[in-house]
């Protein structure tokens, strides 16, 4: 890997809330770059803690996916269980809670695979991708508007999952690639 020299971080001259809804906060930033150029950027502010995306792996090398409605794309999407980290909660606690709420399994072991941004150019949100193993059946009540369909998928069929039309979220792709690397498939 080539070493990339660091760049001087631009100076933030001003920050203001440009718009706010029940879910989203848009922040306007006045920024000056090292060459003197001044620009205005807008970005979506995420929670300080971010979210978790859980990759549940059963002992027989099956992963557990969920099928849930994605309002952003207007259809049902196949992906991994996920959710926001509640205030005062760690990524480990959120992973265990979300696993029970969304797939009705309690993981005995959770391992952070990586933390990824959704859109570094305009969003502050981070998602922690977590491998959950040593799963036992145990559910908890969640906040989903309808029961989630849990889909069992053998990891050796990962290439078919990538071709599935309902498996399209970038975070899910990243999580699958991290799992394949972790398990020495790639």
Tell me what portion of residues adopts beta-strand conformation.
35-45%
Question: What's the number of helices?
Answer: 3
Share of helical residues: 10-25%
Order of helices and strands: EEEEEEEHEEEHH
- Tell me which oligomeric state these chains represent: single chain
Q: What is the averaged pLDDT score?
A: 93
Count of extended strands: 10
Question: Which structural class matches the secondary elements?
Answer: alpha+beta
* Through-space gap between termini: 18 Å
Poorly predicted spans: none
The rough form would be described as globular
Strand order of the largest sheet: 7-4-9-8
Radius of gyration: 19 Å
* Major beta sheet summary: 4 strands, mixed
Describe the structure.
With 186 residues, the protein is an alpha+beta fold. It contains three helices and ten strands; from the N terminus they run βββββββαβββαα. The protein has helices at residues 91-103, 158-163, 170-182; strands at 11-20, 25-32, 38-44, 51-56, 62-70, 75-79, 82-84, 105-117, 126-137, 149-154. The chain has a four-stranded mixed β-sheet, with helices on both faces. It starts with 10 loop residues before the first strand and ends with a helix.
Gist?
The chain has 186 residues and is of the alpha+beta class. The protein is 17% helix and 42% strand.
